[in-house]
Amino acid sequence: MAAPIHFWLNNEELRCNEPPGLSVLDYLRKRRRLVGTKEGCKEGDCGACTVLVGELQGRQVIYRPMTSCLMPLGELHGKHLVTIEGINRPELNPVQQAIVQEGATQCGFCTPGIVMSLMGYIMQKGQVVDARGIKRWLSGHLCRCTGYRSLKAVAGHLQTSVGDRPGIENLIRNRWLPEYFAHMPRRLARIAPPVHRDGKPENRLIIAGGTDIYVQRGEELPETDVFLFNLMPKPKGIRLSGKALHIGALTTFEELAAHAQVRRLIPRIREYMHLIASLQIRHRATVGGNIINASPIADIVILFLALDVRLVLQKGRQRRVLPLRQFYLGYKRMDQRPGEILVEVQIPRDVEGCRIHFEKVSKRRTLDIASVNSAICLRSNDDGTIESAAVAVGGVAPVPLFLEKTSRFLEGKSCRPETVLQAVEIAMTEISPISDVRGSADYKRLLTRQLIIAHFTTLFPDKMQVREFYEVH
Amino acid sequence: MKSTDAILHTRGESRYVDDLPQPEGLLHAAVFFSPIAHGRIQNFDVSRARQSEGVVAVLTAEDIPGENQIGPLIPDQELLAEEEVVYIGQPVALIVAQTAETARKAAGRIVLDVEEYPVITDPREAYQKGQIFGTPRTFQLGDVDAAWPHCEVVVEGHCEVGGQEHVYLETQRARAVPGEGRVIRVYSSTQSPYAVQKHVARVLGYPNHLIEVDVLRLGGGFGGKEDQATPWACLTALATWYTGHPVELVLTRQEDMLMTGKRHPYCSDFKIGVTREGKILAYEVRHYQNAGAAADLSPAILERTLFHSTNSYYIPNVRLFAVSCRTHLPPFTAFRGFGGPQGMFVMEAAIARVAEALGMPREEIQRKNLLQENDLFPYGQRVVDCRARRSWDVAMETYRFSAWKKRVEQFNRKHFHRKKGLAVMPICFGISFTATFLNQASALVHVYTDGSVSISTGGVEMGQGLRANITTIAARALGIRPERIKIESTNTTRIANMSPSAASATTVLNGNATLLAIRQIVSRLKSMIARELNLSDPDRVTIHDEKVWYRGSQTGWTWTQLVQTAYGKRINLSAQGFFATPGIYFDKQKEKGRPFAYHVYGTAILEVTLDCLRGIYTIDAVKIVHDLGRPLNRLIDLGQVEGGLAQGLGWMTVEELLFDEKGRNLSSALATYKPPDVYFMPDDLQVTFLENADEPIGPYGNKAVGEPPFMYGIGVFFALRQAMQAFRPRKDYEFKAPLTPERVLLELHREEVRQGCLRPATVESARQSD
Q1: Most Cβ neighbours (<10 Å): which of B18, B372, B588, B664?
Q2: Residue A43 is nearest to which of B170, B671, B675, comparing CB atoms?
């Protein structure tokens, strides 16, 4: 018998024995009948089920919006789960007021989720409350009624009400947030760490962020023997050693993009993240999960292929290090031995000083799965000769593809449009796209060419411009 | 006025069907549907599902006690398939179990063998094979054939527009609860409670009065729950009838996307003739509507395509042909605009082709041909209170179109691969159900002795703000605070034979019915006070600000005092009001009449920026002048305009409904079907209302606002086309919507792709995209 999941739900302490793989959404709506949280899609695309998850960090609790449909209940151990019922006070809070005043709710089905995200936004101390921020925090929410203008206008109201003083204490002081939030750090600190049954992941379904597995196999998970990786003494955190930047496999996308060292190596990572996933998903999705999920179109994997990262796989005390480029054997087949878990990703430090770029094209510009994505990492000397190059493309083969021949071809060449077009020709022999819902094979070939051109025109604006590629033709 | 609904929404306290407290013994249902688009059922075995633990019943067509028939216009749709299946997603069995998960799991144990028949997904193929619903329709004005020789330029073209998934955030759902005797009460997420009532009754073989349908609110409808909420309500009622238990059915997003109908895809051919100056003399179009596997509302939608095929232009010689074609896809259904947008898209495409042929700006052709007072629509209605030119002129002026256009041209000169496009999109949309008999509504108003008021109408709240609108209307008519008024759920025992909440007409119809009911009560109250105070002229009594006035001065009486006195004097404080839109008719033999009470006009200007290297684009700005009449609730009207626009923009660009040749829906999840998100919509979105446009038919001069703004979105297609032409000028870019980034990039690089510059290597068949 597993130990109960010990957590706080709003202002109530709970020890529950529900299956750890049950989604938080089903738990809330079906077991607790807390029906303010809505089910819109059960695949993390609409945000209607957004809740706040509070986690103790030092002496404070940090709250993040997450889609409850993709989150295993077991992971709530030691955390504070906040639903719309848990933030309501007799009077409307500033987010609720602003939505009412702007008429930013019509059918109302998406509204509770949106209120949770925006409350999460103003509960963060040090946040800048502005139009850009509001959009960022609305990014994972679909509203089919309003057209979003009125929702964006909430920003102005929050600037007036909350202003430059977001944060839990201030919200409580203004009676905008129930007082019990003040007790949460103390309450969470009292909860013992999770007890792991035999602690071994063998023969159990390992779940990290869960953002894909709940979409693919959500119905089976309540009855599945799951191993919740996030409850492990964490392969989290990012640290720099002499040769590499070591990234724990459980590092979330958001943590990755926010880390100073990562941003030093990949200066535009936050821009890429904007295209990769919604905020709620970035708070859940992990670097390791993205790699092990082995989607041929995985955004982070494509970036990492270009950076030539190493993977650290562990079984018991045995560790094995291998290049990501050798990890994928076929569609969703990996060089992963039974019992091995991916614990760390190492970005070699010698990418420092390289020019790195990531491109992604999808039907909808943001928060969509790519038709084709591509990353490049290259080093050139002052006279424009390419010393080393690595190009990866996703969505054009059964695996996330490192373009080995194309990359090798580029090395030693001078940085000119002709070189790029020759590289494209080689790339065409390396890819084998098929027609599917993300686009026709023709389109994916064309996009591969266009994105390779885009890499170079973006990285070498002084050496080549888009115009030249059309004049060469 | 702040809507009470809005407050409940932000607190998560609004209750949708499955949020209501669960009745004792509630069972849950799941639908087993056909995985094959067309064929004859050979072997159908539900025994293993029946034996599953937790399963209470598995119901099939043979369990239906009444008629297995739910087609709204033509009886051609089975609730549960009997011998033949005609689309993927067609319900074949209903599993009733202790939990929804158990029911779904048991559905997986059903065996269905189907002898497969050929599948048709293309409307033209269906037409050629005689697979059509009803008869083709033709609207004519003038003499097209005689006009062609007078045209200096004649161009032809072909259009294809895709379907559109509703993506109401709340999927289809219903809960049925047994009442006393044979009564069944159904809580349904439907825009048409009466349709649910009569179809449940038909399926069970009951008289209508044994079925009570109650609708509190919908988490979005947009037309998708006008008639397609019916099957799910019928299935839960059937299960309740069978088991004696309350039964709930909530579709998952994927089930909903697979099983329910969407906006119709159309194929159309057009021919247009103009003078050298760009005056349109003749226009001929043939619309092939992809109706899916059952008629549903398709013939009515087809009719509206015809009504709006010339948009807001006057063309003296017109021949419009349209036919509804039967294919093996889920029955396509109502969606904001109801066939109008497809007709208008083709008109706009024809104008684009003309402009390109003449080398004139598109907006010049548009402006030259705008409707004017006393022009004739092709269906014989005369244009009155025309605001086509006015909204156009106000838009041009307010938003400084010529300077804007210069900026765009300058940008395009400066940038090589980033190009801007600018388009103007005028709209004209007729208000009324085109089936004249549906233009009726009733309301029931009760005043309680404490002065509070309860109002029931036949309108359904689905986010369009009906409750707030009726509250505003009633508060004004009664002269009391809105807080005293409660709008009840929509219920078939309080309102009989109601029309669906659709056609943008819900506030018009139900607001007027409410006014008519209130006027009866107010008139009784005025007569009473006149008697009480010995006033000679009861007509000079007014009630406002919760007080009673005579000839403009206070009588000292308050609203509550008035009501209490009336009660004591045994005066009826309830009334039922009935409204039928006057003066509308349509003769289907002649295809002429006056089908619309009035028209709504407007003009939008849209700007896009296209990255021609990557094929991706952003919508930079949309600026609108919209003919509103007098606003009832400015926030609500504005929300309708903006929300309609967003759906129109999505339909034209990124919302791509995809079926393969086997009739499989490839875009049946929100991972593969992408409606607009916060970043998709332009930050620069401006709406100006044309306000002094008083429509006497609308309550307090308000014009219908639900559907028309959708069609502003059509402009984005032509803005993108202009940007494409700025990069690579050519006249033969296809008129195919949605104009996805894929279509843009392939069109811009058509030659490179055709010449095989990007030659394919060996094709592998593994999945590559998830």
Answers
A1: B18
A2: B671
Across the 473 residues of chain A, what is the mean pLDDT of every consecutive 10-residue run? 87 96 98 98 97 96 97 96 98 98 98 98 96 96 98 98 96 97 98 72 85 91 90 82 94 95 94 92 95 96 98 94 98 94 95 95 92 97 93 98 98 95 96 95 97 97 94 61
Cβ within 8 Å, pair A365-B616: yes
Q: B87 near B293, Cβ under 8 Å?
A: yes
Per-residue pLDDT of A276-303, as tens digits, reads 999 999 999 999 999 999 999 999 999 9
Q: What is the span of the domain harbouring residue A285?
A: 233-351
What CATH code is carried by the domain that includes residue A443?
Answer: 3.30.390.50
Decide if A123 contacts A171 (C-beta within 8 A): yes
Q: What pLDDT sits at residue A316?
A: 86
Q: What is the number of structural domains in chain A?
A: 3
CA angle B541, B546, B552 (to 5 degrees): 35
In a domain, A442, yes or no: yes
Q: Are residues A256 and A288 in the same domain?
A: yes
Q: Are residues A331 and A361 in the same domain?
A: no
If you count residue pairs, one on A and one on B, with CB atoms under 8 Å apart, how many are there? 295
From the list A395, A428, A445, which residue is nearest B769 (CB)? A395
Residue A205 lies in a domain: no
CATH class of B440-580: alpha beta
Is residue B546 among the annotated active site residues? no
Residue B630 has a pLDDT of 87
CATH T-level topology, domain B4-118+166-259:
Aldehyde Oxidoreductase; domain 3 (3.90.1170)
Architecture of domain B411-425+598-770: 2-Layer Sandwich (3.30)
**H or E element: which one contains B422?**
strand B418-431
Q: Is the peptide bond before B738 cis (omega within 30 degrees of 0)?
A: yes
Residues A39 and A174 in one domain: yes
Same fold, B411-425+598-770 and B440-580: yes
Judged by CB atoms closer than 8 Å, whether chains meet at B742 and A443 is answered as yes
Residue A223 lies in a domain: no
Residues whose CB is less than 8 angstroms from the CB of residue B716 and which lie 6 or more positions away in sequence, other chains included: B423, B606, B608, B619, B622, B648, B649, B652, B653, B739
Contact A12, A66 (CB under 8 A): no
Structure tokens at A104: 């930013």
The whole-number pLDDT of residue B3 equals: 74
Q: Where are the domains of chain B?
A: 4-118+166-259, 120-163+262-369, 411-425+598-770, 440-580
> Hey, are the CB atoms on A454 and B613 less than 8 Å from each other?
yes
- Side-chain-side CA neighbours of B90 within 13 Å: the count stands at 32
Does B6 sit within 8 Å of A142, measured CB to CB?
no
Distance from CA of B248 to the nearest CA of A (A): 13
C-alpha closest to that of B657 among B121, B163, B264: B163
Options B115, B707, B734, B751, the catalytic residue: B707
Domain finish residue from A305, A333, A351? A351
Please say whether the dihedral angle defined by the alpha carbons of residues B108, B110, B113 and B118, taken in this order, is positive or negative: negative
The pair of three-digit structure tokens given for residue B174, joined into one six-digit string: 């219903």
B120-163+262-369, CATH topology level: Aldehyde Oxidoreductase; domain 4 (3.30.365)
Q: Give domain status of residue A439, yes or no.
A: yes
Residue with tokens 């926010």: A258
Task: Give the minimum alpha-carbon distance from A21 to chain B in angstroms, rounded to a whole number.
Answer: 14
DSSP code, position B570: T
Is the model's pTM score more than 0.95?
yes
Q: Which of A326, A351, A376 is the last residue of a domain?
A: A351
CB A209, CB A285: distance < 8 Å: yes
DSSP symbols for B237-275? HHHHHHHSS-EEEE--HHHHHHHS--BPPEEEEEEEEE-
Measured in whole angstroms, how far is the alpha carbon of residue A356 from the centre of its chain?
A: 20
